[in-house]
Amino acid sequence: MDPVFTLHRGSTPLLVSLPHVGTGLPDDQKARYVDRALALEDTDWHLAQLYGFAASMGASMIVPRFSRYLIDLNRPPENAPMYPGANNTELCPTRFFTGEKLYRAGAAPDDAEIARRIELYWRPYHDALTSELQRLHTEHGYALLFDGHSIKSHLPWLFEGKLTDLNLGTAEGHSCAPALRSVLAEVLASQDRFSHVVDGRFKGGHITRHYGRPAENVHAVQLEMCWSCYMDEAPPYAWDPARAAPVQPLLRRLLQAMLDWRPA
Q1: What's the pTM?
Q2: CATH topology for 5-260?
Q3: Residue ranges in the chain modelled with pLDDT below 70
Q4: Domains of the chain: which residue ranges?
Q5: CA geometry: angle at 23 spanning 164 and 147, to 5°?
Q6: Pairing mode, if any, of strands 196-198 and 60-64?
Q7: What pLDDT score does 83 carry?
Q8: What region, left, alpha or beta, does residue 232 occupy, with left being phi > 0 and alpha being psi -120 to 50 degrees?
Q9: Residues 151, 224 contacting (CB under 8 angstroms)
Q10: I need a surface site. Which of 175, 210, 211, 241 has the fewest CB within 10 A?
Q11: What pLDDT was estimated at residue 89?
């Protein structure tokens, strides 16, 4: 176990990354935040539990300890916006997903603090991602990366109306082979319980875009899922077994489809 993440090494070419499940905030940083922020409402709640079956399928899994409010592991270190022209949160977010400020007046991190957080929290996670993908590629001849996310279904500051239940992102087809994109789209289309879209509002963040290099046989996809698929969207954001029961088999089918697929 690394101080900032846990990594389970599997036996297949698949790595599952869950970059926004962390709920830690260092004690020396808590005073910077408004009281509301300490509830960590924009966490990707319960995803390690939701994808708990992945280890039994032979997948590797990397899970961070610290909250995205400290640093967002799915943003580039130079802090370029993921979706130009739309509201975005930054590498070190300064706003809730509802648009209000995360930090007390004058307490937002400056450039030096952001650089410190990159070195302490962001870089170790990405070094581990890089190393594990290299290991999988060496052992299997290719590597597969599944980046799992979840979000509240209604967030007007980020998107209009209700978000589609399941949002598969492949950076408009650039982060994985077209055949893999098609296979996963077919899995989503084979059911009608959950609405779904491919490369809609969420096309994949930094992890999908940076690590997905199909020409080098590293294939990455992102799945953004509404909380309403598996949990209560109101505090305390409880896991809902009845909701999770139908979506978990579909997630398993997606991961199995990745494992069954072979690059040409």
Answers
A1: 0.96
A2: Aminopeptidase (3.40.630)
A3: 1, 83-87
A4: 5-260
A5: 45
A6: unpaired
A7: 67
A8: beta
A9: yes
A10: 241
A11: 84
